[in-house]
Amino acid sequence: MRSRPARRRYEFATFAALSILTCFSAWCAAPSAAAQERRDREPNSVYAERRAKLAAQADAPIVLWGFTGREESSQTYIFEQEENFYYLTGHNEEGAGLVLLPQAKPGNEGWDGPRELLFLPPKNPLKEKWNGVRMSPADPGIEARTGFSTVKPFAEMRATVERLAKIYPSFYPILPYEKELGGYPHEKEVVDWLQQAAPQATLKDIRAQISAMRQVKSPGEIAFLQRAIDLTLDSHLEAMRRMRPGAYEYQIAAKMVEIHAKGGSEAEGYAPIVGAGPNSTALHYDRLSRKIEDGDIVVLDVGAQFAGYSADITRTIPANGKFTPRQFEIYNIVLGAQNAALAALRAGMDLCQKGDKSVNKISRDYINSHGKDLHGKPLGQYYIHGLGHHIGLNVHDPGEYCKPLEPGMVVTMEPGIYIPEENLGVRIEDDVLITENGYKLLSERLPRDPAEIEKIMAQAATQRAKETCKGDD
Q: Residue 170's pLDDT is what?
């Protein structure tokens, strides 16, 4: 459910030392890599195919920057590439640029240079002493390593654009969002830079074309998402086993983060949400400060990231291992809404608020027709968000809610009911791949049935009691 603030890695101080040791052991086991390269990525040929597909949709040069590394000043900041740039290049280091030319038209173009150029910062030995080795245009074999036949110093990018401006009347950057607090800092910076380098050029937005491509996942992307989901399922199962009155929300969250890191996750997809009692009704609660009390319901919305791809999974469980009758009632209504939506889910359906193709509407109608609040009113007023969204390089990946779903898209299914008056919030969220014949529930391994959840928690409580008795002996 939680959206991921761009480029920020959330850390838990309680497990800082453990995380460092975990990462160190991962480095020892994995092949050596430059400081900011991801341990896993798709082959260069996949990124090249994406660039070619994008260039085929343009009638002018596409000019993009990656993040500069200056977008975030926090001391816990760990660099993570701008998603569109990474999607096209697989490059995860700061200060890079990209120029893609449209498909050449014989006899109608004055450009005789390469059709795609990657620009990288020059070698900086002093900086590397502090921050580790970085790729540079002068590195031997840099073309094979990056998948670009032409790699130049970033300082030459402006001259390239100035030359292209004499041939092309327009350029395609990612234009800044035209809404309050929208867009990333670098988007405006790139536009300002282009207007100085090519003041007569018309700028067209390439965002929509890239976003459309990102919605349908490649086999490699689906595999990375499945790895992220599997790690997330492991952490949720462990949270069910460890949940008990007297624990703190942050303790449960920290254990889940530890499991992700041990399994190879480089970060969380978003700030972990563990909300007990009244906090279960706050959708994006992330303070994690409450001591979990007997009788609390606890919402666990925690997702691992793997190779840049984010899972998004939520389960709601009873703190003491047993749902109260009212908790059980609301939980089953949410589960029924999710099952009703899943039963209708297939290519051609959508996530719109209304319409005869809307699985969102199906879930909302179910909740409105089952159960009441304490005042006898329908529960739909407590279902305060949509049914789902796309996931991928961002936990809220590009995707139009009212566009028909297609095979290869990966979306969440997450109905919820949040009743502040009762300190009762329930959300059940799963990640789903749309297929040619329907869908595949990628998070199927994690129980949704309340009886199964109670059984897992009861078995864990029994095991804890046995271990306590052994300790007393």
A: 97
> What is the domain-level CATH number for residue 58?
3.40.350.10
What rounded mean pLDDT belongs to the chain? Answer: 91
Which 3 state secondary structure label does DSSP give 286? Answer: coil
**Which among 400, 228, 241, 386 is positioned nearest to 308, based on CA atoms?**
228
| 143: three-class secondary structure by DSSP | helix
Q: What is the average pLDDT across 309-334?
A: 98
DSSP letters of 369-405? TS-B-TTS-BGGGG--S-S--B-SSSTT-S--TTSPP
Q: At what angle do helices 185-197 and 157-165 cross, to 10 degrees?
A: 60
The two tokens of residue 403 are: 């566009």
Is position 436 within any domain?
yes
- Do 183 and 153 share a structural domain? yes
- In angstroms, the CA 248 to CA 256 distance is 13
13 belongs to a structural domain: no
* CATH number of the domain bearing residue 381: 3.90.230.10
Q: Parallel, antiparallel, or unpaired for β 62-65 and 97-100?
A: antiparallel
Q: Is the pTM of this model over 0.90?
A: yes
Of 192, 213, 234, the last residue of a domain is 213
Q: Is 195 helix (H, G, I), strand (E, B) or coil?
A: helix
> Looking at the predicted structure, is the pLDDT value of residue 199 above 60?
yes
Q: What is the pLDDT of residues 236-277, one digit of tens each?
A: 999 999 999 999 999 999 999 999 999 999 999 999 999 999
Q: Is residue 413 part of a domain?
A: yes
Tell me the pLDDT tens digit for each residue of 162-197.
999 999 999 999 998 776 656 777 888 999 999 999
Residue 336 domain-assigned? yes
226 sits in which H/E element: helix 219-242
Same domain, 117 and 163: yes
Domain region containing 59: 43-213
Together in a domain, 171 and 245: no
- 8 Å CB contact between 284 and 1: yes
CA distance 473 to 468: 9
Tokens representing 370 are 């089952």
236-255 residues labelled b (16+ CB within 10 A) or e (exposed): bbbbbbebbeebbbbbbbbb
CA 341, CA 94: separation in Å to the nearest integer? 42
User: What's the domain count of the chain?
Assistant: 2
Tell whether 356 and 343 lie within a shared domain: yes
**Number of Cα atoms under 13 Å in the Cβ half of residue 437:** 1
